[in-house]
Amino acid sequence: MSNQQILLIDDERGISDPLSYALRKEGFEVTCSYDGQDGLRRAQSLLPDLIILDLMLPLIEGLEVCRQLRGDPRTREIPVLMLTARTEEIDEVVGFNMGADDYVTKPFKMKPLVQRVKALLRRPHLKEQSVDVVSRQGITLDRLHHRAVAEESELPLTPTEFKLLWTLLRQPGRTFNRNELMDASRGEDANAFERTIDVHVRSLRQKLGARAVLVETVRGVGYRFRDEPHESVVTETNAI
Amino acid sequence: MSNQQILLIDDERGISDPLSYALRKEGFEVTCSYDGQDGLRRAQSLLPDLIILDLMLPLIEGLEVCRQLRGDPRTREIPVLMLTARTEEIDEVVGFNMGADDYVTKPFKMKPLVQRVKALLRRPHLKEQSVDVVSRQGITLDRLHHRAVAEESELPLTPTEFKLLWTLLRQPGRTFNRNELMDASRGEDANAFERTIDVHVRSLRQKLGARAVLVETVRGVGYRFRDEPHESVVTETNAI
DNA sequence: CATACCGGTTAAGATTTGATGAAGAGGCAA
DNA sequence: TTGCCTCTTCATCAAATCTTAACCGGTATG
After folding, report:
1. Superfamily classification of domain A5-122
2. pLDDT tens digits along B173-202
3. Do B123 and A90 touch (CB under 8 A)?
4. CA–CA separation, B240 and B230 (whole Å)
């Protein structure tokens, strides 16, 4: 029972039978389900370590199953491996951002698929859970209440500035180019002058005051939020 | 160089020019190649994150390029997006099972294609093996954070120096000629003065300090990153 | 030894890049 | 409507970076 449990949701016996066989031979415990509704119920009762999900399912579509899995806190973190018939479907799935963790196109070879399964199970589960509060270097952002606080005082950020800082703060040290920041701060409106970001960064820095140095410029690339503490800020912090 | 690199292999300027422009505007680094042979060579020296490949090419056919890319362990895992003239061709291509990851029929709209590119690059299993950190001989490059570290201290590299070192470091021991290094560091126009590379190498060596010897000159050919920590005596003996 | 070739070095000039100030353009509520 | 507020665009400047070209010394070759 120390074996890892896999829930396989697929209505085609021609696929699920050999697949479940191959997985069992690898030492996994496999439970099969042949439609979406049943699969969803089993997922919630079994809480397996991994779910393999066909995109085309009777009763409930694969995407809907995935959505509901993600909506339930008990199953939210279970990795999902999606089976799709065509490459283009992957785009859709990715587009819907349904949170599948990997995709395999049918027809597939058994060995690579098992490899993928193992890789997913091996993966450290630092999946970015939906976080509403981020706090770094004395700056705290709460996106539910749309509040930004630096030490004591509240920062009056505009929506764009807020999203910008949110993006930077969530992955401190990572450098974002202007396009990524554009996307992050303005949704998917892709066609805008890149340098607009510079202006937002500027006003952001102004409002950050002494902490402005935390938003670093990476020349030729973009911007990033400083990872390690900065001397002048520490001094400032102490002084307050 | 937090940016992802795309190699575009297409001989029709009417296609490759606007496409490379669109991709660059999206923040990708794009290198263009106008025939199969050259494209193959560039793929092997650049090791881009994605390759866009026209099916009809001079010198070597697209399918043959694809086959050879799949045959080389260095390029085997790089996703390939194939451009084809007619829908029926897709079937043929799929039939040959040449391992292209996606197909787009010409003529295509710019936006959807860019979407496809992004989707391909976002695919989880590709993400897992795409390399963002390279570390050799005590030097570590992280293109996501855009950081270069030697032992303890951070190296303040300019964008060009970073890309140069990134290229050398990814395939230690392999000698790159100046054109290849030009490509890698300047992405765009390959028709610049070759000796420019020498100057970049020099400033790179200066910043590397004691580790400067790791960037070796191969007289008459180009440069390479040293593979072995010490003298090549052992290597010689083993080689014979 | 002479010579052509090659890479190292240097500095000046050209180009690119980001910061900044300011001027519209909409949006929205009073 | 007017009066903010926010976002975008543009022009300009200074600094960082890249390229070019000239000069130098080492090396292979005859």
Report:
1. Response regulator (3.40.50.2300)
2. 999 999 999 988 876 655 678 899 999 999
3. yes
4. 18
